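FORM 12-B: Structure-to-Sequence Request
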């Protein structure tokens, strides 16, 4: 199979892509929340994780 050709969009492939995209969006949201949080909130989060 050529590298540029996507596999046929059967149910499992589509579910896999949706799960990957959803996971990516969640990670980006968490990153934005952490980066936009005030420093005291960030310190509290680190204490909560025992860091």
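FORM 12-B RESPONSE
SEQUENCE OUT:
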């Amino acid at each position: 199979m050529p590298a540029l050709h996507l596999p046929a969009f059967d149910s499992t492939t589509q579910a896999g892509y949706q799960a990957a995209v959803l996971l990516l969006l969640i990670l980006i949201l968490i990153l934005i929340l952490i980066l936009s949080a005030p420093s005291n909130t960030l310190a509290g989060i680190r204490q909560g994780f025992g860091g």
